[in-house]
Amino acid sequence: MSQLGHFFGSGISRRDFIKTCVATTAVMGLPFSMAAKVAEAAQAPDRPPVIWLHFQECTGCSESLLRANHPAPATLLLEMISLDYHETLMAGSGHQAEKSLHDSMKANHGKYILIVEGAIPTKENGIYCKVGGKTALESLRKAAEGAAAIISVGTCASYGGIQAAPPNPTGAVGVRDIIKDKPIINIPGCPPSPYNLLSTVLYFLTFKKLPELDQMGRPKFAYGRRIHEHCERRPHFDAGRFAKDYGHETHAQGYCLYKLGCKGPATYANCSVQRFNDAGVWPVSVGHPCIGCTEPDILFRTAIADKVQIHEPTPFDSYAPVDLKDKGKGASPVTTGVLGLAAGAALGAGAMLARKLPDAEQPAEHEQGGDHEHKE
Ligand code: SF4
After folding, report:
1. Which residues line the pocket of ligand 1, CB cutoff 6 A?
2. Cα of 285 to ligand 1 centre, how many Å?
3. pTM assigned to the model
4. Range of 48's domain?
5. N or C: which end of the chain has fewer CB within 10 A?
6. Buried b or exposed e, range 22-41, using 16+ CB within 10 angstroms
7. Distance from the alpha carbon of residue 63 to the mean position of ligand 1, in angstroms
8. How many other CB atoms are found less than 10 A from the CB of residue 218?
9. pLDDT tens digits along 237-288
């Protein structure tokens, strides 16, 4: 790590640089021994040109990257790349901005990374979103032509997001619904973790190839597991202890939020591991159910209070089980999984449930656990 001068000059300390590289290495699922290689790639002199387009969105993805209470991920990202066009960040505007976009596309044809934030409206030839006199549809197609790869950052660019929610009046879609001949990486989330974007770019710089993607086009290292598998409230789920309502003592005691609509059992993301704001928090840790923002079939498609179906067994989590006084009534995660698989229904787990549902029937609301447990 001998060429860190330009990072220090940009306000990032050596300690923060190393810490961020180590954190990013961990996000990618690589051993710590790879951190030095990642750091080396981060300070390589060749900075890939990046064009960042905004369409139908709230700019929350950019904001979450830039307004983090700890600026290291954003600083590192912006120092690693040559950000040639970003409407929120660039000083220029009007014709000057348009010129820089076109100059970069021409000079770096076939080499630049295109990052897209926001959905693309398609109805009536895309007239519902225009920038610089061109529709989002035209701008995306033009910019995609010369892109080496495309990163759809956020759920709107990945799947259409809230703009595409029924009745979808503008015909909004995600990038992959329009561009079919380029590698596209989806980094969904509302907003996504800045580390997931940073890790994706760093993976590319380190290994000179794209990370392995799942069937939704998401990097497996960040979206390979359900948040339910590492949630700190999971032992309560396995014990059948559920928060009854917001503000209720069961809520304050950290019981599982499944009955309040938590979509964690069906949501693939690393929020429960990576967390946010360098403060170790994420929505579920502060009492709000997961809204499934990385899943196209859940966010803005399923009411926040509705329960998701649990179709598959979930592996053991990383937290110790809660200490049930009546140990004979405790349920293991395996029991949970088998029940979920057999019933295919929105079951809260628990041994009492296992006993009451020998035929794997959908439980009545009062049977889904929790009521008896919080009296302990
Ligand atoms: S349902 Fe939600 S709150 Fe409960 S364990 Fe799963 S992710 Fe955590």
Report:
1. 227-228, 231, 233-234, 237, 256-258, 262, 264-265, 284, 290
2. 10
3. 0.81
4. 5-223
5. C
6. bbbbbbbebeeebbeebbeb
7. 27
8. 25
9. 999 999 999 999 999 999 999 999 999 999 999 999 888 877 788 999 999 9
